[in-house]
């Protein structure tokens, strides 16, 4: 009885070393790479933007990722308590709590988009997706129905089922199956997209940089994208870090996750850009690119139902491995803070998070009652989480690891030279760049 409701002190549940890499890659690789990345890359100049994204990843993304993992493993707690334990001050824990709240709300809208991908996978396999020419209308009707909420519930249930089983039996096992499947799907779809006649134009848009397109604004957007895409500032990597064994090299894991994420974004671009160029779709379209423009392209290609279906399955897999990591943050927090057992924490937090997402899902319908200031509630939650909470929490971590926490070197265990470079990035480069993003989105600086 007590075991179900209250946490029991059993043997610590940890990742194996490959299990951790796969789970961290699973968190990083997600809708950010396949849904956000193509349209921001399209809007901000293709290859030049991709290059900026990589620079941001190296200068800011990797140093903060390592800092988050070190804080998690050093504190062996959740995204808030790890900071309290390492600093001895509750104020740091309170700052860490911001990321716990942020991940809760990220999950609330992320689960919605993940649900769309499942719906589109089903529509594609049944052929229903291709019985129309009006993809904007199809998407609009879907948005105006209750179906997105049904699918959001499915995503939440799958995520909860994985989390209930714990770290090694749940999160790790799930990622160990899904990540290799993701790689196979990605390669298959990339080969298919690259073999389309006229794919070259899309490839050169994506890979041949036009530096005249580089602006200060695109640099800030690239930084925001690097952050979201590496799952930073939301406590995910702190939480996962707490489950990493002491013997694992955090430096190597950081590089592996960074490389995995870039390769994935690269392959996703090689699927999406040739496809949209061959079918004369504007790459600058907004978020509808994946759900409106791409189905039209799939409908016009041979075996489109199969490739379209596989594409949306790929998206769904990528989304759910990320969702698992996002929901784990408030779950770990609730179970440690309130002493709840894992099943209880997962069920309660999952239910609350699902309910919190319902108004966002409804806000995308035609009724304007959940829109204000020119944005639907859904977009507000995304905007505030991605552009405000993420950078603030990122800043908290850089300052904490760079200036406050004395044990940082012992936990990171880098060589002298690498440690110096890392500390320099954490102290001087990352905070300045992240602050710029924050001020830009707060409207304090205009470019
Ligand atoms: N990195 C994920 C993606 O690119 O889709 C999304 C994400 C996961 C963002 C976890 C934030 C987070 F904490």
TrEMBL record:
**UniProt GO molecular function:** symporter activity
InterPro entries from the UniProt entry: Na/ntran_symport (IPR000175), SNS_sf (IPR037272), YocR/YhdH-like (IPR047218)
Does this UniProt record's set of keywords contain Membrane?
A: yes
Protein topology in the membrane: Multi-pass membrane protein
Q: Gene Ontology terms, cellular component aspect?
A: membrane
Domain of life, per the record?
A: Bacteria
Where does the UniProt annotation locate this protein? Membrane
One Pfam family it belongs to: SNF
What family name appears in the similarity comment? Belongs to the sodium:neurotransmitter symporter (SNF) (TC 2.A.22) family.
Any idea what this protein is called?
A: Transporter
Species assigned in the record: Paenibacillus pinisoli
